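CATEGORY: protein folding

GOAL: derive C-alpha cells
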Amino acid sequence: MRTDELEIVCFALALHLGIDPDEVDPSHRLDEDLGLDPLDLVLVVLRLEELGDVEFPVADLEGLRTVDDLVDVVRRWAHGPDTLRSEPLTAPPPPPRTESGYRLAVGAEPAWEAESRRVG
C-alpha cells in the first residue's frame, strides 16, 4: 500500500525522470537505480516543494540513498510544526543606508566613529 508521501515522491521522481510513477519503487537507490546526481535530487526536491507547499532544509538531504529515505524526510517535513508555508517566502529588507550610501547592520556604528572613541 502506498502512502500519500510515497505517491507524491514517486510522482515528482517520475516527472523528473520522464517515467511512469509506478516504475518507482521505495527500495530503488536514488543514484544507482534511478541515476540521480546531487543536482537531480535538488531539482526533485524543488518539485516536491512546489507540490506540497513546504520548504525543505537542504541539510536534511544529506545521506539520502533510497526513495524510501526521501519519503521519510518528506513525511517529517510535511508533519513538522514549522514546515508549512501560508504565504510565499520573501527576502528580508536590506539594511538601512547612511548619508554616504554605505549599508550598516542594524545597531552597528561606522568603524571610523568607534576608532575615534578608542584613540581619543
